[in-house]
TrEMBL record, chain A:
It is found in: Cell membrane. One of its GO terms (biological process) is transmembrane transport. It holds the Pfam family BPD_transp_1. Residues 74-262 form the ABC transmembrane type-1 domain. It comes from Tianweitania sediminis. Its main location: membrane. The keyword NAD does not apply. The chain crosses the membrane at residues 12-34, 78-102, 123-147, 195-219, 240-262. PANTHER family: D,D-DIPEPTIDE TRANSPORT SYSTEM PERMEASE PROTEIN DDPC-RELATED (PTHR43386:SF1), OLIGOPEPTIDE TRANSPORT SYSTEM PERMEASE PROTEIN APPC (PTHR43386). This is ABC transporter permease. CDD domains: TM_PBP2. GO terms for cellular component: plasma membrane. Coiled coil: none annotated.
UniProtKB/TrEMBL annotation, chain B:
Residues 5-248 form the ABC transporter domain. One of its GO terms (biological process) is transmembrane transport. This is ABC transporter ATP-binding protein. Belongs to the ABC transporter superfamily. It holds the Pfam family ABC_tran. Keywords: ATP-binding, Nucleotide-binding, Transport. It comes from the Bacteria.
UniProtKB/TrEMBL annotation, chain C:
One of its GO terms (cellular component) is plasma membrane. This is ABC transporter ATP-binding protein. Belongs to the ABC transporter superfamily. It is found in: Cell inner membrane. One of its GO terms (molecular function) is ATP hydrolysis activity. The keyword Cell membrane applies. Keywords: ATP-binding, Cell membrane, Membrane, Nucleotide-binding, Transport. It comes from Tianweitania sediminis. It is a peripheral membrane protein. The keyword Nucleotide-binding applies. InterPro entries: AAA+_ATPase, ABC_Ni/Peptide_Import, ABC_transporter-like_ATP-bd, ABC_transporter-like_CS, P-loop_NTPase.
Length: 275, 259, 253
């Protein structure tokens, strides 16, 4: 059975992937749906949702369209979430592979660095990083990646330690393969599956961290973010709660989609390895 | 004639619970070109450790290994990797000796890539040649190793070992996990390859039946030491040490021959 | 000898993930007698293990049986009336429990004993499989034992339910020849003393010729022939049996 077939049998995977595909389509087509600057004033302030056909989800305190904000915000959320999670996994995998494969002093050194990063709470580290260097998309991505690479690093190292002792690694050494090639071509690909299982949690965590940073005003000021929208709405929470609720729902849906899709994927791949 | 491999005073201990447990103690032997030396011993006698020491997959605590006149323990990593073309190993478990993602052709071509300047096309031709030499259908080349039977996998392992034209192959219990009938076929294959290429074998096993079928000389190992040494016929007919006697007695015999 | 079981046109198919279901065993006619030592011999994929699992009611859930398997008495309960020893002695023991507990649990379930009696009987069993210092072994975890010791422990666990039938599936393939000879001798003498039926699966026709009453040769899911070792080895009726014997002569004594 192919991977696609197995995924199609897991209802949670279908639900998750559907949510994510919709979100990505929305994010990709944002400039077409709402061509102007989503931060520009486009109507009367504080219009309620579902009353004006041109501002379907209403407007905020400054008269900016909420739907345009949510749609453009999806771009930021997904971009930051995926890129920073990918960076964290790549960094973690490289560190974990080198530490596990080389052993000895290098292992000791890399793992103490990992410890150092892990003892500082991830969100505080990202916060400190962004507030020192200044908020921009690149900085936010870097900050989140730095805050979340340690878990994949530890996981990969543990896998590599067990795979390193297998016969096929000895076989690769016996035919004279270069150690770096053994580490990254023979060992790493076989150490990745559990990390991919973790990736959904990392992506979801990255999206939430980005939202939290934006909520505190540390997001890229030139982009709409859901966190920023929720923070904006806070001032008028009693009179216009929808301003915070709508981006909040978008955030919940995204994280849920990521979790479900990840869960389904792990389920599908583990079924393959059992067969 | 100068021996191909000359091992002397090889010693290795493993740390266990803070103290060193000796696995191989002061082991010396040599192998000539196109010769088969069997290292026989019960489990725990240090055979597999010795296989890995001789191929320098682990480093000994003491002793020397002269291969083709060179002390391989003194070779720098790069020179050692080049040397591995001529010093190969086949492991016991054909299930775990390959990257789970590998195809047959990749498993064999990896070695060609490292040790020859062949182009991709030449490598493909060579892989098919090698598969034919180990009597496998060349059309299996693009199959995943996991689709093959144990005997077929062991043939691929032998083809991989032969790819770099070695002068010595260490066979670490290479037929022990196979059915008796498959075992006979693989031994037959190994003998034919030896005739064709004059490769020498260091054959590690616990089974004197297999030894009788393939070995010229035998060294009996117990508790990390060589306790007896002689021609295969001698040791099987008149074992001297208690270890060798137990090994001879333990080989299954067809009932009629025993009675 | 009294008949224990009659197989008629017996077969097993494994249902694949989709529409492909593989026939592992087909059209087997075989009588098993109470108290005999029957060897099932064949190469991998011959169906010998499938038959062993079917006899012990241990087939996986996606297996489908057809034909008849008629027991003279009621169908035996796995663990109690029928003991099973697997090829990999490590795999059949719980890695995080002392081996004594594993055996004692079987005793408690199948012999309905209290904890203390079960532990005492466990020590007797460990002594019966000729493990030195049963008290120490009972407290050991599987990884602290050698392969031969683990297989003896697995044998003790298989005997713990006081079975009438012992099924041993390649119990010595993972062991070296010296330990193999000792384990075979042990299985043989224990089953003889207790009058147990032994069903022994192996790919080595010479190995089983040393102790089996009858040998059944399997190939590609079919029973090729069955007979006493003398019949099978002296006068093999089938080319395939001759092939197995030749293979042994090439790699044995």
């Amino acid at each position: 059975m192919s991977l696609a077939q197995r995924i199609s049998r897991a209802p949670e995977a279908i639900a998750g992937i559907t949510i994510l595909i919709c979100l990505m389509l929305v994010a990709l087509s944002a400039p077409l749906l709402f061509p102007g600057d989503p931060l520009a004033i486009s109507g009367t302030p504080l219009l309620r949702p579902f009353v004006d056909a041109t501002h379907w989800l209403g407007t905020d305190r400054l008269g900016r369209d909420v739907l345009a904000g949510v749609v453009h915000g999806a771009r930021t959320s997904l971009l930051v979430g995926l890129v920073s999670a990918a960076a964290a996994i790549v960094l973690g995998s490289v560190v974990g592979t080198l530490a596990g494969f080389a052993g000895g002093l290098l292992d000791e050194l890399l793992m103490r660095v990992t410890d150092a990063f892990q003892t500082v709470p991830g969100f505080l580290m990202a916060l400190a990083f962004v507030s020192t260097i200044g908020p921009s998309l690149m900085v936010v991505v870097t900050a989140i990646a730095l805050a979340s690479w340690t878990a994949p690093a530890r996981l990969v190292r543990a896998e590599v330690l067990s795979i390193r002792e297998r016969d096929y690694v000895a076989s690769a050494r016996a035919i004279g393969m270069h150690p770096l090639k053994i580490a990254f071509r023979e060992i790493l690909p076989n150490a990745l599956p559990p990390v991919l299982g973790l990736s959904a949690i990392i992506v979801a965590g990255a999206i939430l961290t980005e939202a939290a940073l934006s909520f505190l005003g540390l997001g890229d000021p030139n982009r709409v973010t859901w966190g920023g929208m929720i923070a904006e709405g806070r001032a008028v929470l009693r009179s216009a709660p929808f301003l915070s609720i709508i981006p909040g729902v978008a955030l919940v849906l995204t994280v849920l989609g990521v979790y479900l899709a990840g869960e389904g994927l792990v389920e599908a791949t583990s079924r393959r390895s059992r067969a | 004639m100068r021996p191909l491999l000359q091992v002397s005073g090889l010693t290795k201990a493993f740390k266990r619970g803070g103290r060193g447990v000796p696995a191989v103690q002061d082991v010396s032997f040599d192998i000539g070109p196109a010769e088969t030396l069997a290292l026989v011993g019960p489990s725990g006698s240090g055979k597999s450790t010795l296989a890995r020491l001789v191929t320098r997959l682990i480093e000994p605590d003491g002793g020397s290994i002269l291969f083709e006149g060179e002390d391989i323990l003194r070779l720098k990593p790069k020179a050692m990797r080049a040397m591995r073309a001529r010093l190969q190993i086949v492991f016991q478990d054909p299930g775990s000796a390959f990257n789970p993602r590998a195809t047959v052709s990749r498993a064999i071509a990896d070695s060609l890539k490292i040790h020859t300047g062949f182009s991709q096309g030449e490598r493909r031709t060579r892989v098919r040649d090698l598969l034919e030499r180990v009597r496998l259908n060349p059309d299996l080349a693009e199959r995943s190793i996991h689709d093959l039977s144990g005997g077929q996998r062991q043939r691929v392992a032998i083809a991989r070992a032969m790819a770099s034209s070695p002068t010595l192959i260490v066979l670490d219990e290479a037929v022990s996990a196979l059915d008796v009938s498959v075992r006979a076929e693989i031994l037959h294959l190994l003998k034919r390859l030896q005739r064709e290429t004059r490769v020498a074998y260091l054959f590690i096993t616990h089974d004197l039946g297999v030894v009788r079928a393939i070995a010229d000389r035998v060294a009996v190992l117990d508790d990390g030491r060589i306790v007896e040494h002689g021609s295969a016929q001698e040791i099987i007919a008149t074992p001297q040490s208690p270890t060798a006697q137990a090994l001879v007695a333990a080989v299954p015999r067809l009932r009629l021959q025993a009675q | 000898m009294r008949r224990l079981l009659q197989l008629k046109e017996f077969g097993v198919a494994y249902e694949g993930g989709g529409d492909n279901s593989a026939l592992a065993l087909e059209a087997v006619d075989l009588e098993i007698r109470a108290g005999e030592k029957l060897a099932l011999v064949g190469e991998s994929g011959s169906g010998k293990t499938t038959l062993a699992l079917a006899l012990a009611s241990l087939l996986p859930s996606h297996a489908r049986r057809f034909g008849t398997m008629a027991w003279e008495a009621s169908e035996p309960r796995p663990g109690g009336d029928i003991g099973f020893v697997f090829q990999d002695p490590g795999g059949s023991l719980n890695p995080v429990r002392p081996v004594g507990d594993t055996i004692a649990e079987v005793v408690r379930i199948h012999r309905h004993q209290d904890r203390r009696t079960a532990m005492r009987m466990t020590l007797t069993l460990l002594d019966q499989v000729r493990l030195p210092d049963p008290e120490r072994i009972a407290r050991a975890y599987p990884h602290q034992l050698s392969g031969g010791q683990r297989q003896r422990v697995a044998l003790a666990a298989a005997l713990a339910g006081d079975p009438k039938i012992l099924v041993a599936d390649e119990p010595t393939s993972a062991l070296d020849t010296v330990v193999q000879a000792a384990v075979i001798e042990l299985i043989q003498s224990l089953t003889t003393t207790a009058g147990m039926t032994l069903i022994f699966i192996s790919h080595d026709i010479a190995l089983v010729s040393e102790f089996a009453d009858r040998i059944a040769v399997f190939r590609s899911g079919r029973l090729v022939e069955v007979g006493t070792p003398d019949e099978i080895i002296f006068a093999p009726g089938q080319a395939y049996t001759r092939h197995l014997i030749e293979a042994h002569r090439a790699v044995g004594f």
